[in-house]
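User: Predict the structure for this protein chain, please.
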Amino acid sequence: MKLEKQHACYGGTISYYSHESAETKTPMRFSLFLPPHAEQGPVPYVVFLSGLTCTEDNFTTKACAYQKAAELGLAILAPDTSPRGGDVTNSEDYDLGQGAGFYLDATQEPWAEHFRMESYIIKELLPAVEQAFPLDSQNKSITGHSMGGHGALTLYFKYPAMFKSCSAFSPIVAPSQVPWGHKAFGAYLGDNESEWAKHDASVLVGQAENAGQNAEILLDQGLDDQFLEEQLKPEIFEEACKAAGQALSVRKHEGYDHSYFFIQSFIDDHLDWHQRYLSA
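Assistant: Here is the predicted structure, written as structure tokens:
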């Protein structure tokens, strides 16, 4: 894994970026924030998955999370949202192709060669950063925004032994039932909707073993979010969690939209939330 030190430092720590990926056969990037506590040994960390059109830098530059993370002794890992480059298939639409990986492994051409974001994150990125940096491999949590909220929830249910806790900002909770999911799943996975269900948090929670013993999930949603009624539909996930016995805290906020200002406003709460489980 080739690394470059960046000049930007936060609380005496340094952001790093990776430029190799064996899984996708194309360059991949991520940002990693390390708190001062990492100078004494491995620290717990939170994985943040970003949304449509974002890169590894959006969270780093817009979320204003690192002061709180430094206080709590948490590292934060933020991968890019898709493979990129001239040889990577793309679309003219913002919600498909580069910037829109949906954190799954595509099975359909022309996407299957490069769009393997689930395998990249779980099998390659997390083991690589845990080997290269002072991160506690047994203490990590996951969160995300929008498409990344979808990714956080689905990976949490698919890999229950991997993450101590999960939260999400304005997540796509039922992609099988909304236009964003229909478009991405149809392209990446084909027409068989049984394959779509494998990447739908509102389905996966009902299939989770011992859902009632999972950590409580935190979900924040702005009520002025322009995508709320058509694309997000948190009420579907609320009902699914209730039926499955999954503890869920949903906070709905008047006056907030889908932007990073929303994330800025409540990111400290999410880091505190994860710290409860990572320090247990």
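The chain has one domain: 3-278.
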